[in-house]
Fold this sequence. Notes:
Helices cover 24% and strands 16% of the residues. The chain has 11 helices and 17 strands. The protein has helices at 3-13, 59-66, 81-90, 115-121, 215-232, 267-289, 310-316, 333-336, 362-371, 387-391, 468-484, and strands at 33-39, 69-75, 125-131, 156-160, 172-173, 176-177, 183-185, 204-206, 241-246, 296-302, 337-343, 352-354, 358-359, 403-407, 415-419, 422-425, 449-452. The strands form 3 sheets. Strands 1, 2, 3, 4, 5, 6, 9, 10, 11, 12 and 13 form an 11-stranded mixed sheet that branches. It has a 4-stranded antiparallel sheet with strand order 14-15-16-17, with helices on one face. A hairpin with a 2-residue loop joins strand 5 (172-173) and strand 6. The protein is globular.
Amino acid sequence: MNIRTRTFAVLLLGCILSSGGMPPANAEVSRPNIVVILVDDMGYGDPGCFNSQSKIPTPHIDSLAQHGMRFTDAHAPGPLCHMSRYGLMTGRYPFRTDVRVWPRQPLIEPGQMTIASLAKSNGYRTAMVGKWHLGFAEDGYDKPLPGGPVDCGFDQFFGIRASTDIPPYFYIRNDRAVQAPTETIAANHSEGWSPIQGAFWRAGGIAPDLSLKEVLPRFTQEAVDVIQRHASDVGSESNPLMLYLAYPAPHTPWLPDEQYVGQSGAGLYGDFMMMVDAQIGRVLETLRESNMEDDTLVIFTSDNGPCWYDRDVERFGHDSAGGLRGMKADAWEAGHRMPFIVRWPKRVQPATQSDHLVCFTDLLATLADLFEIELPDDAAPDSFSFLSELTGVDAPRAAVRSQFVMRAGSVASMMTIRSGDWKLITGLGSGGFSKPKRIPAGPDDPAGQLYNLAEDRSESNNLYEDRPEIVARLKADMETIVDQGRSRPRTASLGK
Length: 496
């Protein structure tokens, strides 16, 4: 048994479950605290650890990569905010539900397993801070807001319903509005940027205690408070913490503090991204000061690609997409291939890199693997554990991800399947924010797009008509995954 195997064996020894399937609340276990940091609309090429030519200093994100594992082939399950968050929380592809209803009703069904409910049922204290964007059952702001984080496995929540450019703007504590959005705010735009860039927000209701410029640091302080309270609690060793920190930035509005203005080489966006990195640094420093760093698994990523156009690349010399094609909402790689870093002291080797295919839906199965829990077949149907990739310990019975399927952000009929090196898009155009988002196929045009990402990560050479056998195979695989309602093999099929 090698050193890494022995280390992980010790970890798992502390995770052995009681015969009833769940550990008692005060069980003496040796499991890590878990902090998931999800930023908003940051591109693959923004952090320096993913793009050496980045014009944006990101020392704190880079430090995570220096002390952890950097995944170069990790993907959001959908290229928009609500799609991505749904998949991360549930282990289920967002095309399997109608994500469009989030402004009116919750996307997560009652009793549906989430990363939070799984952690809570295994002795974790669970907290969420930040942007939810998965819907509430809203019936006035003087009443409870059902269907949110505290109904989906989190013990506590402080945050906002959606983005800081989508009204109404108000803070929520657990399932109640802290103050109702009784005032109004006019729409705002920035000169020199597209209508959906810069200090952009929409007109609407706003609570008296909420200032858009103060939301980001407010969420950092709330996260710091959660960590410090947990560290000071005498029961924290037997009930570790799971914190999901969902920053609504660098999504618009781009509102950097004065100390960051003009400090990056990527304009207002880069300045705001510097501020986001500094906020992350404060959270990481709190883990250190609270003596929790060595016992905490940190996962960092972005929900989808950036809102950054070709003209922005030309103007600033900064490629937010890091050489990938497209942007937010697109079926092309920049819409969904994300920076993804895992730091886990003494478990994950520092300064390592993995090309293992990961989708955000995989977080749930990975946590179940960590807890030594066998997922029910009706939970997390599109989740594959990547724990063995982190630890270097083989898991012979674990299903390994080799494909993922995604719907584009703006064209509902455009689907994508990735299988090995091949990527098929079932239409022409970006499917998202890049223009043209849809191109009707003419009589001499291919019906879709096929790329070999091992040879053509920039998706510049469409092989759809050259490799019909690959197109046929991927279409068949995609139809099976869609029709079966799951991509993770059922437990019985994995053997014993």
